[in-house]
């Protein structure tokens, strides 16, 4: 029997709720249950949810990521950065850079080509904010590690885009068969980041102006949703990062509007079903057939990325003289990897086509592993830091 899209959406919500409750019995975060629900119901296992349905509801994933980014942006209060200084920026740069250095170094030591090693390792910098945010929300984590984590995951995508652009440019110079313009590959991520931030800031100022004329929660919710939607739409049309754009939208709104806190409370009250659908769909999109293709390259990527994130975080936090809990536990909360990494792996198939398929297979395998174990490790790290009761 073939269901329509609405029936599949209902099945995804019900299964997400059921698996979210089941994983609580073994003290895992809800998001792990959502991912498992999607994996089991999806094309890789039971095939209850067909692949064309997953592809057909891609807009839900875009919307969910937009709201997650908007929510992260609301943590970028200037008062917070005046208090903590540049430490989140320094930590974000170090954890991203060391993930790249560690993966690239070991790949080269195992006899892989330097251009291939550079491009693959540059994707290791990316961290998926969605799973991290869901764990923080579920357990109501609070404290210096959580505050720094929110800032670092928000900055991480910008760092990842920059490092990917630079790595591809260097790989292009080293690879004699490549016709990539080095200047354009370096400038492209810079222009993408600046463009996303400028557009997001402009939309944030417009939202700040118009929100004053609406007092009812329903109207304010509608206005906020409308601006997130138009932000995602503009990002798709202009080719900039919707994550960075919506972060800038949220950051501008929270710093210039006195209504930001009550508006965010209303938004947070209606987004859980969207987030649940996003994670169930993400689980269904995981392809088990790529696991045998991971090989030694994939093992190096999965393990050394963790080493780089933890080491880079520790060094960055040490330089900034951060709390010892931040040094010790923050790096372990940066493991999840999804949308941005998959997008960069897809870009790699066009800029370095000779390595593209291998890079994509490794990143997809790593995504599967990180998305399933990452939320649980994030919970453990925050609990050991004393920020989850």
Description:
This protein is an all-alpha fold and 389 residues long. It is built from 18 helices and no strands. It has helices spanning 5-24, 30-41, 51-56, 58-73, 78-84, 87-109, 114-123, 129-139, 144-174, 182-211, 217-238, 242-256, 260-270, 272-285, 295-319, 324-329, 339-351, 353-384. Helix 1 (5-24) packs across helix 14 (272-285), helix 10 runs parallel beside helix 12 and helix 11 (217-238) runs antiparallel to helix 12 (242-256). The chain is globular.
What's the SSE blueprint?
Blueprint: H1 5-24, H2 30-41, H3 51-56, H4 58-73, H5 78-84, H6 87-109, H7 114-123, H8 129-139, H9 144-174, H10 182-211, H11 217-238, H12 242-256, H13 260-270, H14 272-285, H15 295-319, H16 324-329, H17 339-351, H18 353-384
Helix pairs in contact: 1-2, 1-14, 2-14, 2-18, 4-11, 4-12, 4-14, 6-7, 6-9, 6-15, 7-9, 8-9, 8-18, 9-10, 9-17, 10-11, 10-12, 11-12, 11-13, 15-18, 17-18
